[in-house]
Specification:
This protein is α/β, with parallel strands linked by helices. The protein has 39 helices and 23 strands.
C-alpha cells in the first residue's frame, strides 16, 4: 500500500538508507513496497534484491518533480515501463527543459497524480493519489464521482522527529538558504512517515474501493529483473562463432609477431586461454577492447594496458597490454577462470590530452544510446558536512572554516555547534550528489535507457544513475578508459626529442628500457625524480634500500609499497630478506615452492590466492571471493567470513600450526583493497622504466615534458631544478622565444608563459600566435602596437625579463611602456606600412642589485630562476656535510643547510610527525624524519632554507636524518624596497613547499610486527 517511498537516494531530500527502509517495512507488516525516488532510479536494483530477501513485493518507479514541486509518480508495470520513464527523464536532463505537467502517454507505466495536481482528463493507466489527511474532502460529491480512480498515497520520506529535522536541513542545503528561511512548501509534510499496515487500512476503512484500486495497481506491477545474465554488448561481429574465429586469428597472428613462429610455450598458453575465453563467451569483450586499442595505435597515441588483464597472453598478442605473462610467470587464473561469471576488467591509460578523442571514438562507434559512464554517489564528507550544516544554522565563514578543518574534539561546545555536530554525524555516508566515475564506461547490448535514466554532467559525456557496484550486480562490466600524466610525460618527451634532436625513439619497444644498464644504476640510487610512480620520497627510499637494479625487483617494489602490504610489516620483511637472503627460513614449504621469487613474502594479490589454495587448501571458488575482496569489489562480509572459517578449518585438518595459520591470515587480510596484482605492478614497472630511460638519455626533453604536463609528485620548481642539474640552461619567459608551454631549444629551456601567475591565458596565447603569424617583435613599442595588453600585463612581462632582447633595463622599459600607453588608442593597433618611431628619451642610469631579478621571479613564478635560493641567504654557511656523503655518517650527528622540497604528515600515538625531503647546496636530494617532540620546539615555518641538526640513520643503504633541531634561515632583504620598508621580508614568504597530509599510521618497525623468520611446527 506504500506507493511513494523516498530513500536517501532522493538527494538532499530523503533521509532513510535503502536497506533500513525495507527493514522498517518488515516491522510494519508491509507486503508490497514501491521505491519512487525523486527524478532517479539509483536505488531500484539494490531495493529489489533487499525486498526479495524479506519476501516483500518490490515496485519501482520515479517521483517526477520540477524544482522540488511534485508532478506525478510513475510505477513500472514491467521492464518496459522503467525504460519509458528513463527516456522521459533523460530528455529532461539532456535538454535541460522542465518535465511536462502531464505525464506522456505511457504504455507500461502506471501514473499517480497527487490530489492537488489532477489533470482534466485521465488515461486508463492514470490514478489520483489521496493521503489519509485528505479523505475529508471526499464528502464533496465532485470528488466522490472519482473514487474509481483513487489510490492510497501515504508518502514516506523520514522516520523520526530527528530525521524530520535532518530532512529540513537537507532541504536548506539543497536550496542554499538558512534553515530559518525554509517555507512549508519547500519540505515534506509531517505526515510523510511509514505507519503500521493495520493503522493505514483503518484510516481507509470507509473507502474499500480506494483500497481495492491500490491493490489492483500493486498486482499490475511485475518488475522482474534477471541479475545473472550479462548486459554488456555481446558481440563485436554479429555472433559468438564469428567473434571466436576472429579472436583466434588475431591471437595467433600476434603470437607470431611477439614470440616467433616456433614457441611451444607461448602456443600452449594461447590455446589454453582461448579455450577459457570461448567457454565463458568473452570473445566479444576482448575484441571491443582490441578495437579501441587499434584505433589508438592508428592515431599514433601511446596507451598502457594494465591491471589483471596483463595476466593474459591474448591481451599481450592483441597489443592491449605490453606485459609478457611468460616472462613474469603471471597467473592467468587471477584474471580469468571458470568460476568467474563476469568479464574481466581491462584498465587502459592514455595521455590526459588524448583520452577525450578515445572516448569520442567509443561513443561514435558503439552508439550514444548504448554507451555511458558509470556514475558515483559522492557522499557527505567530514569537511563538507560541517561546512554545509553550519551554513544552515547561520554560522559565519570563519567558524565554518574552523569546524571543517579541525577535529570534532577541538570544536567549541556551544549549543549551535553541538547541533551542527549531531546532525552532521547523521549525514555521514549519505549521498550528497551524483558524479561521473573517473574512467568506467558501460557498453550495453540493449539501449542503456532500458536500465537507467542518464544525466549529462558538465564534462559532456552521459552518466548512468548508479555506481560500478550496482552496474556489476545487474550484469554490466565496465571498460576502464583512464588518463594519466605519466603517459603524457613519455609521449611528449618522444616528440620533443624528435623536434629538438631529430632522433626517433621507439619507446613502445620495452626491451629498449627494461634491460638498460645505466637506467638500472640510476634506479638503484633512487635518481628517479619525474619518473612515473617511482619519484615519491617513499618510493625512492625503497629503491635505495633494495638496491633495485632490475625489472623483477621493481615489479615487487611497486606492490610492496602499497598500504596493505607495508602496514602489515611485509614490506619491512621483504627488504630484510632481499638484503639478507641467508638469514631466514620459509614459513612453510608451500611458501618456498609458490613464493620463492619474493622470499616467501606475499607481495601480490595472486600470492594470496596461491597460499589460500596451496597452504589453506581452499577451493578455487573461495579464491575468487578473496580476489574480489582484494580488488575492492566484494561487498559481502558474510561470504568473506565464510572463507575465513573455511581457511582455519582446512588448516587444522592439514595439521598446520595454529599460530602460523593465524599469522598467515593476518597477512591475507592486509591485502583487502590496498594491493596490486602482479600484472598491475608489472605494467607500472614498464611505464616507470620508459620514463627512466628517457630521463637517463634525454633528460632535458624529459623534464620539459614533465613541466608541461603539470604532473608528478612535486611542484614545477623541483622539475626545473632537475632540468638544471641535467645540464639545461634555464631561461625566463621571452616574448620572442617562449611559448605558452615550456620550450626546449638545444640545451636551453625557456619557461612557458603559463607559469606566470598573474598573466591571463588569452594574452599569453595571443602574444605567441601574433609572433608566429607576423614575425618577431622588434621593440617594446612594436609589441604594444600588435598585442592587446594593459599596463598590468606589460609590467608582468617586463618584471620577468620577457623584453630582455631590447637590451634595456627593466626600469627604463617600465617608463617607456607608460609613456606609450598614456596616449595609446587601441583602434590604431594594426600594422602600418610606415610607423612613426617612438620618441627616444635619455633616462638616468639606475643601479640595480644583481638579486632584484630573483625577487621578481619569486613574486611571479614562486621560485627564483636567475640564482638558487642558497644565493639569497644572509649566511654564507652551506653545511658541514653534503647529501652525497651521508651514508658515511651512520649514527653520527650532522649539521646541514638545506632547501625544503616537501614534507609528508603522518599521525602517531605520540602526536604528528613529518618526513621531509630537501636539496643541499649541491642540488642533491636527502630525507629527514621529524618526531612530535622535536616539532613542538622546532616546527616547520613554510618554504625556504633551513639549518638542520640531527643524527644520520642508514637503513639498508638509505640514509635518513632524524632531526633534533632546525631553524629557517633568513633571506637577504629584498633590494627592491628601501631599508625602512616592511616589504623587504615579505617576498621570501612566497617560497613554496609541497605538503601532503595523510591519516595512515607510520609503517611499523621490525619489533612491532615481529614476523616469524623461522619455521613453525605443530605443538
Amino acid at each position: 500500500m506504500y506507493l511513494n517511498c523516498h530513500s536517501f537516494h532522493s538527494l538532499r531530500y530523503g533521509t532513510i538508507p535503502l536497506q533500513e527502509l525495507v527493514e522498517q517495512a518488515v516491522l510494519f507488516g508491509v507486503t508490497a513496497l514501491a521505491l519512487t525516488d525523486i527524478n532517479t532510479v539509483t536505488g531500484i536494483y539494490d531495493f529489489i534484491k533487499a525486498c526479495k530477501v524479506v519476501q516483500i513485493k518490490p515496485l519501482v518507479g520515479i517521483d517526477f518533480r520540477n524544482e522540488g514541486k511534485q508532478l506525478y509518480i510513475g510505477l513500472a508495470k514491467n521492464r518496459k515501463g522503467i525504460a519509458e520513464m528513463n527516456r522521459l527523464l533523460t530528455k529532461h536532463n539532456f535538454e535541460n527543459i522542465p518535465l511536462p505537467d502531464k505525464a506522456p502517454a505511457f504504455e507500461h507505466t502506471i501514473v499517480i497524480y497527487p490530489f492537488d495536481k489532477i489533470p482534466e482528463t485521465m488515461n486508463e493507466n492514470e490514478f489520483i493519489g489521496i493521503a489519509p489527511e485528505q479523505l475529508s474532502k471526499l464528502y464533496n460529491y465532485v470528488w466522490k464521482r472519482k473514487l474509481d480512480k483513487m489510490v492510497v498515497l501515504q508518502t514516506v520520506t523520514y522516520r523520526t522527529k530527528k530525521e524530520f529535522n535532518l530532512h529540513k536541513i537537507l532541504r536548506a542545503i539543497d536550496l542554499n538558504i538558512l534553515g530559518s528561511k525554509l517555507t512549508e512548501t519547500e519540505y515534506c509534510k509531517v505526515a510523510h512517515v511509514m505507519i503500521p499496515m493495520e493503522k493505514l487500512m483503518e484510516m481507509f476503512k470507509d473507502y474499500p474501493q480506494i483500497i481495492q484500486n491500490t491493490q489492483s495497481v500493486i498486482e499490475a506491477c511485475h518488475f522482474e529483473y534477471d541479475f545473472n545474465t550479462p548486459k554488456n554488448k555481446k558481440h563485436y561481429t554479429s555472433n559468438q562463432h564469428d567473434d571466436s574465429a576472429l579472436l583466434t586469428k588475431l591471437a595467433y597472428e600476434g603470437m607470431v609477431r611477439r614470440y616467433g613462429a616456433n614457441n611451444p610455450k607461448a602456443k600452449a598458453r594461447v590455446e589454453k586461454e582461448l579455450k577459457v575465453i570461448n567457454e565463458l563467451e568473452f570473445s566479444g569483450y576482448f575484441l571491443i577492447t582490441w578495437d579501441i586499442v587499434q584505433y589508438s595505435i592508428s592515431r599514433g597515441f601511446l596507451h598502457i594496458g594494465r591491471g589483471s588483464g596483463a595476466n593474459s597472453i591474448i591481451a599481450y598478442c592483441l597489443d592491449i597490454t605490453n606485459i609478457c605473462p611468460l616472462e613474469l610467470d603471471l597467473y592467468f587464473e587471477r584474471f580469468l577462470n571458470v568460476n568467474r561469471k563476469s568479464p574481466p576488467d581491462f584498465d587502459i591509460d592514455w595521455s590526459w590530452r588524448e583520452r577525450d578523442t578515445i572516448l569520442e571514438y567509443i561513443f561514435t562507434k558503439y552508439g550514444a544510446d548504448h554507451v555511458a559512464f558509470c556514475g558515483t554517489n559522492v557522499e557527505f564528507k567530514y569537511r563538507s558536512i560541517f561546512r554545509e550544516v553550519g551554513k544552515v544554522f547561520g554560522l559565519p565563514k570563519e567558524e565554518l572554516d574552523e569546524l571543517a578543518k579541525n577535529p570534532m574534539k577541538t570544536h567549541h561546545q556551544n549549543e549551535v555547534v553541538k547541533m551542527v555536530q549531531e546532525y552532521g554525524m547523521l549525514l555521514e555516508k549519505y549521498p550528497n550528489q551524483r558524479s561521473m566515475h573517473s574512467c568506467g564506461i558501460l557498453i550495453s547490448e540493449e539501449p542503456i535507457t532500458n536500465f537507467t535514466a542518464l544525466e549529462m554532467p558538465p564534462k559532456g559525456f552521459p552518466i548512468v544513475q548508479f555506481d560500478m557496484h550496482v552496474a556489476e550486480d545487474i550484469g554490466f562490466d565496465k571498460f576502464d578508459i583512464l588518463s594519466q600524466r605519466g603517459i603524457g610525460h613519455i609521449d611528449d618527451t618522444v616528440k620533443l626529442i624528435k623536434e629538438n634532436q631529430g632522433i626517433d625513439v621507439d619507446i613502445r619497444d620495452t626491451s629498449l628500457s627494461k634491460n638498460e644498464k645505466v637506467c638500472n644504476e640510476l634506479l638503484s640510487e633512487g635518481k628517479t625524480i619525474g619518473c612515473f610512480y617511482i619519484e615519491s620520497p617513499a618510493m625512492r627510499g625503497l629503491l635505495r634500500r633494495l638496491k633495485c637494479d632490475n625489472y623483477k625487483v621493481l615489479v615487487a617494489a611497486s606492490s610492496i609499497i602499497r598500504p596493505g602490504v607495508a602496514q602489515s610489516g611485509m614490506m619491512k620483511e621483504y627488504i630484510f630478506r632481499h638484503n639478507y637472503p641467508d638469514r631466514f627460513e620459509y614459513f612453510h614449504d608451500v611458501f618456498k615452492e609458490q613464493l620463492g621469487e619474493t622470499y616467501g613474502i606475499m607481495v601480490y594479490q595472486e600470492d594470496v590466492i596461491k597460499i589460500a589454495l596451496h597452504y589453506g587448501g581452499l577451493p578455487a571458488a573461495d579464491g575468487d571471493i578473496l580476489r574480489r575482496a582484494m580488488s575492492g569489489k566484494g561487498r559481502s562480509k558474510a561470504a568473506l567470513q565464510k572463507v575465513k572459517d573455511n581457511f582455519f578449518a582446512s588448516c587444522q585438518q592439514q595439521g598446520h600450526p595454529e599460530q602460523l595459520s593465524q599469522e598467515i591470515y593476518r597477512q591475507i587480510e592486509s591485502f583487502a583493497g590496498y594491493s596490486f596484482c602482479k600484472a598491475h605492478s608489472a605494467s607500472y614497472a614498464v611505464e616507470s622504466y620508459q620514463s627512466l630511460y628517457l630521463k637517463t638519455y634525454y633528460p632535458i626533453e624529459f623534464m620539459t615534458a614533465v613541466i608541461n604536463n603539470f604532473g608528478g609528485f612535486y611542484r614545477t620548481e623541483v622539475y626545473v631544478h632537475e632540468a638544471r642539474m641535467s645540464g639545461a640552461k634555464i631561461h625566463n619567459p621571452c616574448v620572442n622565444t617562449s611559448e605558452y608551454q615550456t620550450k626546449v631549444i638545444g640545451k636551453n629551456l625557456y619557461l612557458g608563459f603559463q607559469h606566470l601567475k598573474s598573466l591571463d591565458l588569452k594574452t599569453a596565447e595571443l602574444l605567441v600566435s601574433e609572433r608566429l603569424e607576423n614575425g618577431l617583435y622588434t621593440s617594446l613599442e612594436d609589441f604594444i602596437n600588435r598585442v592587446p595588453i594593459g599596463i598590468e600585463g606589460i609590467q608582468i612581462l617586463i618584471f620577468i625579463g620577457a623584453f630582455r632582447f631590447t637590451g634595456k633595463p627593466k626600469n627604463e622599459l617600465l617608463i617607456i611602456a607608460r609613456l606609450i600607453l598614456i596616449n595609446f588608442k587601441p583602434e590604431h593597433r594594426h600594422l602600418l606600412l610606415i610607423r612613426e618611431p617612438v620618441k627616444e628619451y635619455k633616462l638616468p642610469t639606475v643601479e640595480r642589485s644583481p638579486f632584484e631579478d630573483a625577487f621578481d621571479e619569486i613574486e611571479l613564478l614562486d621560485f627564483p630562476v636567475s640564482v638558487t635560493p642558497f644565493n639569497l641567504l644572509q649566511t654564507k654557511f652551506r653545511g658541514d656535510v653534503m647529501a652525497r656523503d651521508l651514508t658515511k655518517h651512520h649514527k653520527k650527528t650532522v649539521r646541514m643547510l638545506a632547501y625544503l622540497i616537501s614534507r609528508k604528515h603522518v599521525p602517531t600515538k605520540r602526536g604528528d610527525m613529518y618526513f621531509g625531503t630537501w636539496i643541499d647546496a649541491e642540488g642533491e636530494f636527502f630525507d629527514t624524519a621529524h618526531f612530535a617532540d622535536c616539532l613542538k620546539q622546532y616546527p616547520f615555518k613554510g618554504g625556504g632554507c633551513y639549518l638542520l641538526l640531527g643524527q644520520v640513520e642508514v637503513d639498508y643503504h638509505f640514509p635518513t636524518i632524524t632531526i633534533s633541531k632546525m631553524e629557517k634561515m633568513p633571506f637577504i632583504p629584498d633590494p627592491r624596497y628601501s631599508a625602512t620598508d616592511e616589504k623587504r621580508f615579505q617576498t621570501q614568504q612566497q617560497i613554496r613547499e609541497d605538503v601532503s597530509m595523510t591519516q595512515r599510521a607510520p609503517y611499523p618497525q621490525e619489533h612491532e610486527i615481529n614476523l616469524p623468520r623461522q619455521k613453525m611446527t605443530q605443538n
